[in-house]
Write a structure and sequence with these properties.
The protein is of the alpha+beta class. The chain has three domains: 1-85, Outer Surface Protein A, domain 3, CATH 3.90.930.60; 88-128, no CATH class; 129-383, NAD(P)-binding Rossmann-like Domain (Rossmann fold, 3-Layer(aba) Sandwich). The chain has helices at residues 36-42, 51-60, 67-78, 89-95, 98-114, 120-128, 142-151, 184-195, 213-217, 231-234, 242-247, 275-285, 289-297, 309-327, 363-366, 373-383; strands spanning 3-5, 11-15, 18-21, 29-31, 81-83, 132-136, 156-160, 222-225, 251-257, 260-267, 337-342, 349-352, 396-398. The chain has a seven-stranded mixed beta sheet. Strands 2-3-4-13 form a four-stranded antiparallel beta sheet, with no helix packed on it. A two-stranded antiparallel sheet has the order 1-5. α7 (142-151) packs across α14 (309-327). It is elongated and about 80 Å long.
């Protein structure tokens, strides 16, 4: 182990004996009271020294035997310490790619704040390189979202769509103006490749023609439905995700409809409500809903749909953040929940998608009871919280 105080946390002395690491309440911790020798020793925790050398230098500074090990253990337990050699063989392989690491250094620093254990952040970053994500939709939301995931280190990000790039598909960070007239899939593939810090560590054989979406989805970590048609995210057709439900593939909805951005739900088949549950809940609340949806879906859409550029970017960013939280093993707050925001206020609000007992996904039958609206509010409140370090013995305390 080569311990290092997490560089992402800025340091500031509150007084002569108390130091604060971090600025925001979600991550800040206060250490004190601290003697001069211990304060000087913290400067040695820069990732260049192993524990034997640190113990030797601590003795030279007059610190008692065992003080270093206890200090390092408490720092690690509080989430303030990282390990420049941790993360396992995959992390070691990633460190050898200096150019890639330089591209991903801000992401690594951010991950170190949510992956508390030493070496866990680089381990998660290395794990991303082996993930496969498919984005269905190559419009203003879908391509930007795909590029964000690729740029954050997800190894294989594939975009599926039909037709050719239209002028209104162009977006900063997505399809460039030079791609107008090209096949959407080809243009999206190049955009993703430009965003990626390197090629994926392995190549997965393709050739999905003639197979259903669910069969092709096997082996995918996540499918993101980001349709260019806003109706398909406002009122997603349950039939379009049936194969994903059957194959057990997690999938996330994201898009813009009129002047409203939508992220979620993240559907975990068998555990959370799906598009069918959403449709049935809406029908329960408004018996006219099926009639309206049938009219909206009938005929061909001939006009260019509303899709505010900044709103599309916000949706892509939030959806990418939720997707990465899920891919990294955490519980994103859009699991079983739709997040919506509308212009011009842009205030995000959560709407739980409860499993419906009549839905063919069977989720409600596999759970004990159903969540109440109060449960949904609790889910919204708790999901966004970052865990604070527990108050530790001796000189440690959480700073809020």
């Amino acid at each position: 182990m080569h311990p290092i105080m997490k560089p992402a946390l800025r340091r500031g002395w509150r007084d002569l004996n108390t130091v604060q690491f971090g600025m925001t309440p979600a991550h800040a911790m206060v250490l004190g009271p601290m003697d001069t020798a211990t304060g000087s020793f913290l400067e040695l925790l820069d990732g260049t020294r192993g524990m034997p050398l640190l113990r030797e230098q601590a003795r030279a500074m007059g610190l008692p035997d065992g003080h270093v090990d206890g200090l390092v253990d408490r720092l690690a337990g509080s989430g303030l310490l990282d390990d420049t050699t941790g993360g396992g063989p995959a992390a070691d392989a990633l460190r050898e790619k200096q150019g890639v690491m330089d591209r991903l250094r801000p992401d690594l620093a951010s991950l170190s704040l949510v992956a508390r254990e030493p070496g866990a952040a680089v381990g998660r970053l290395a794990a991303r390189r082996r993930l496969r994500v498919r984005v269905l939709g190559a419009g203003r939301v879908g391509v930007v979202l795909a590029a964000l995931l690729a740029g954050a280190g997800v190894g294989e990000v594939e975009v599926r769509d039909l037709g050719r790039v239209e002028p209104w598909d162009v977006a900063p960070g997505g399809l460039p103006v030079e791609s107008i007239g090209e096949r959407r899939e080809d243009a999206a593939r190049r955009a993703v490749r430009r965003a990626a810090p390197d090629r994926p560590p392995r190549t997965v054989a393709g050739g999905g023609e003639g197979r259903g979406e669910g069969e092709e989805a096997r082996g995918l970590s996540l499918v993101i439905l980001a349709p260019r048609d806003g109706l398909a995210v406002h009122a997603p057709d349950p039939a379009s995700a049936e194969d994903l439900i059957v194959s057990g593939t997690p999938h996330l909805y994201a898009g813009v409809v009129e002047a409203t951005g939508v992220v979620g739900p993240l559907v975990l088949p068998g555990d959370t409500g799906c598009a069918g549950c959403l449709d049935l809940r809406r029908t329960d609340a408004d018996p006219v809903w099926p009639r309206l949806v049938a009219q909206w879906r009938s005929g061909r859409q001939r006009r260019v749909a509303a899709c505010d550029l900044a709103l599309a970017a916000a949706v892509a960013g939030l959806a990418a953040s939720h997707a990465l939280a899920f891919l990294d093993g955490g519980p994103p707050s859009c699991a079983g929940t739709r997040w919506e925001t509308s212009l011009p206020g842009c205030a995000w609000r959560a709407k739980p998608v409860e499993a419906h007992p009549a839905c063919s996904c069977g989720t409600a039958k596999r759970t004990i009871g159903e969540r109440t609206p109060e449960d949904g509010e609790a889910h919204e409140t708790m999901a966004g919280r970052q865990p604070h370090a527990a108050q530790l013995a001796g000189i440690w305390r959480a700073h809020v």
